[in-house]
Each structure stands twice: as C-alpha cells, then as structure tokens.
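Title: Comparing notes on inverse folding

I've been comparing how different people in this forum approach sequence design from structure. To keep things fair, I'm posting one structure and asking everyone to reply with a full sequence. Here's the target:
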C-alpha cells in the first residue's frame, strides 16, 4: 500500500507523538461556545503555517466541528498548490498518510467518485512536498481518530469552483458524514515576500490585516468563491485561494448561505503575544466554519 510520509514534521509541527499531542492540547485553549456555531458544519477554512503561529486557529475549526459532529467519516482537505503548477486539481487517491500520530487511510471510494466527476485528476506525486494538507492531518487524527481523508491540491483558478461544486454534489449522495476543509494563509506582507504596496512599518502591516485580509474573508463569509479567486489574484491576499474557494463552493452547494469567522490574526500579532517582538513582515490567518 502506498503511504505518504511526513515532510514537515519536526519543522512546522512536532515530529514525535507525545510532543505532537501536547502541542495540539496547547492549541486548544479557546473554544467558540456551541450556541454560536451553525447547527451543522459542512466545511471550514484553516491556515497552514507552523503550529506556533497558526495552530490555534486550525484547532478552533476542528474543535468546532467536533462540538457539532462527534463522528466525521471523511475530511476532504483542499490544499494550496505551492509547488504544483498544473491547471487541474490533483487527488491523492489511494493508500494512506503517515504523521507522528500514526497512519490515516485515504478514502479511496470517495476519491473514485471525485475522479469520475472529471473535476480533478489523480497525481500522488504532486502531494509529495506540499505542506498545506499535511499540517491539518494530525488535527483530524486527534479529534476524529476513525476518520479517513481525501487530500486534493487545488490551483487558484475557476476549476477550484467546479471541484467544490462537484464535491458538494457527491457529498449529497453519500450516507456518511463528510466535511470539506480549505487550507490557506492570507496576505504575505513585507519586503521578504516582495509585497509592500503600503510601504513598511506597523501601519502597513495593519492595512494587510484590516483591509487586504478582510476583503478575502468577507467574500468567504458571503460564499462568493469567484470573488475570492479574483481578490487573491489582484490583491495577493491568499496563498491557497483555490483551496478556500473549493471549500466555499462545496458549502454553498450543500445549502449554506453564510460563514462564521472564529478568529483572524497574523504572524506579527502572534509574535508580539508569544515572544514580545514585532516584525516588518506578517502573514495573515483565519479560522472560518460554514
């Protein structure tokens, strides 16, 4: 059986079982009260930086799902395409993924259904060095140890919406509980990222969060995947716009009309809070459920 081995364990998140569990527990410090959550959750948007910076926001989303659904059979995890430059979404369609928490099976039956819809193609090799899905898998294993996963890399083009809509249609036909997760970070601001339209300094970093990130978040909350893709292409406010748009398109197909923002921050705010230092750069992170 084909098994994908972790490539960022020990870098983006702990590489050993006990330390991995300990950090997940550290991430679960704040929960949204259940009464504020949607009655059912069909999708979420999570960040994919190192857990030190964005793990608490990813944990918020998975914790919210757990509050509403004790059992989830499969998570379709839409990932950012950092190193994949094809136009078509690519599915990891067989075998399993390994993390410090053990092995999790790929939902091969669901993979077949997605591939038959012609919304994606099979390419396990494309997933080999991509971290945006991997960093979510231990959260799945921790909160939902019996769940399977379906990893799909999603380029930031219109095919992301077609994929999300196809996923929504497929989910409607299933008897099991399936949740879609879109993995994206938001604005990468500062000289290091070659993006400084408002100059540098605290005011510019604040603009990246309060204006640039907010536009993308607002389109997501209103379930407008086309505008999400257009905004990211024009304003560089998401590195996984395709992944997020696919999750939103699926949520819309499944009858959702709005999203709920659980948290929004950036790496500079995290550094100030945890380390007492600031930076000329910042990367935005949001946690959203639908």
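Reply #1:
Here's my take.
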């Amino acid at each position: 059986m084909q098994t994908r081995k972790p490539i960022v364990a020990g870098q983006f998140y702990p590489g050993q079982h006990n330390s991995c569990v300990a950090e997940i527990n550290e991430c679960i410090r704040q929960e949204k009260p259940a009464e504020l959550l949607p009655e059912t959750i069909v999708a979420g948007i999570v960040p994919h930086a190192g857990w030190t910076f964005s793990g608490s926001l990813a944990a918020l989303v998975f914790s919210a799902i757990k509050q509403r659904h004790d059992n989830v059979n499969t998570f379709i995890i839409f990932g950012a395409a950092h190193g994949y430059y094809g136009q078509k979404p690519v599915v990891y369609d067989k075998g399993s993924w390994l993390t410090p928490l053990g092995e999790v099976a790929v939902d091969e039956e669901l993979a077949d259904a997605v591939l038959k819809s012609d919304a994606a193609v099979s390419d396990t090799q494309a997933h080999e060095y991509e971290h945006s899905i991997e960093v979510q898998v231990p959260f799945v294993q921790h909160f939902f140890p019996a769940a399977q996963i379906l990893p799909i890399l999603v380029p930031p083009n219109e095919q992301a919406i077609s994929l999300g809509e196809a996923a929504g249609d497929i989910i409607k036909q299933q008897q099991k509980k399936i949740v879609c997760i879109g993995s994206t970070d938001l604005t990468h601001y500062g000289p290091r990222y070659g993006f400084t339209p408002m100059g540098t300094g605290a005011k510019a970093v604040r603009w990246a969060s309060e204006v640039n990130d907010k536009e993308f978040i607002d389109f997501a909350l209103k379930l407008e995947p086309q505008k999400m893709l257009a905004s990211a292409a024009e304003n560089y406010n998401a590195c996984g716009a395709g992944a997020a748009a696919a999750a939103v398109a699926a949520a819309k197909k499944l009858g959702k009309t709005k999203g709920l923002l659980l948290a929004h921050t950036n790496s500079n705010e995290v550094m100030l809070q945890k380390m007492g230092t600031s930076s000329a750069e910042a990367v935005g992170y949001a946690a959203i459920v639908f």
